[in-house]
Amino acid sequence: MGNIAQPELCRLHTLKVSHIDQRGIWLVAGERLAHLPRREAPLVTPGEQLEVFLYQVVADELQATCRRPLAQAGEFALLTVRSVDQHGAFLDWGLAKDLLVPFSLQPDRMQVGRSYLVKVGLDQQGRPFANGRIEECLDQTRPELHEGEPVDLLIWQLTELGAKVIVNHRFPALLYRDELPAGSDTGLQLTGYVKRLRDDGKLDVTLRKVGHEGVADARDVILKVLAANDGSLPLHDQSSPAIIKQILGMSKKTFKKAIGGLYRDGLVKLTEEGVSLKVKGSKAIPEKTRQ
Fold first, then answer.
1. I need a labelling partner for 39 at 20 to 30 A (CA). Which of 31, 133, 164, 238 fits?
2. Cross-strand bridge partners of residue 52
3. pLDDT digits (tens, 9 = 90+) for 16-66
4. What is the per-residue pLDDT across 141-196, written as a single tens digit (0 to 9) for each?
């Protein structure tokens, strides 16, 4: 039995039902059993598999729930304060028992009803807690990521340059202001791409695919918008980056690369008035672009 892997605490797992008694349902969690209240899975039988969230609030007593938390151990999330007492603030994280943020891990005193970005962690006894000191939670080592690699982004803080974001619940990065979606705020989750890994080890990220794949996507966008606007758009080399961004949702640099490729392929005409389909109508649009 000594070699049986022990499942991580404060994570989702699929566990087998060992037996059921008056206290509830007992699940096999490595060498131990976890208790699941009977009311959460009233029709389950021994031998069945259940996906549960495994946690511990009392030493050596494993608890399980079929409810899904808003964040697992090691993850960041924007959570709302439900109450405050002499121990700290208690956050709603989707489970029956609220998540404690000790006063020592609050940059500023948290207030009931307000939401804060925190990271879920485990204390030495394996009990969950939250840490609101975000900068202390981030991995400052050089990330093993490559240009163009897709990543998960979470907005941490808005700045004059754009937004500080957390990459893959681990690394800090910067998303520049011209890429921020309208109404962006702390806690917004986005899918992005690694734009560059700087010499100092810092990350820049983007919401647009980079390299050839990004230009290919931009070509499709331009053709779709042209088709939706009777085959022409008042955009050209002299158009402002803001106008291009407003109409097409891309940078002027990407627009120029994509238009150049469409022109060389004989799909568009370029005039002083703008860009237009060389043959108006769906025949000028590649098959994969048409929906």
1. 31
2. 13
3. 999 999 999 999 999 999 999 999 998 999 999 999 999 998 877 899 999
4. 988 888 888 999 999 999 998 999 999 999 999 998 888 888 889 999 999 988 88
**Enclosing domain of residue 106:** 76-135
186: domain CATH number is 2.40.50.140
Q: What are the phi and psi torsion angles at 137 (to 5°)?
A: -90, -15
C-alpha span between 55 and 62 (Å, rounded): 6
Are the CB atoms for 99 and 106 separated by under 8 Å? Answer: no
Same domain, 26 and 81: no
Q: Is residue 290 part of a domain?
A: no
| Alpha helices (runs of H) in the chain, residue ranges in sequence order | 134-137, 211-228, 241-248, 252-264
Counting every residue, how long is the chain?
291
Residue 133 has pLDDT above 50, yes or no: yes
Domain count, the chain: 4
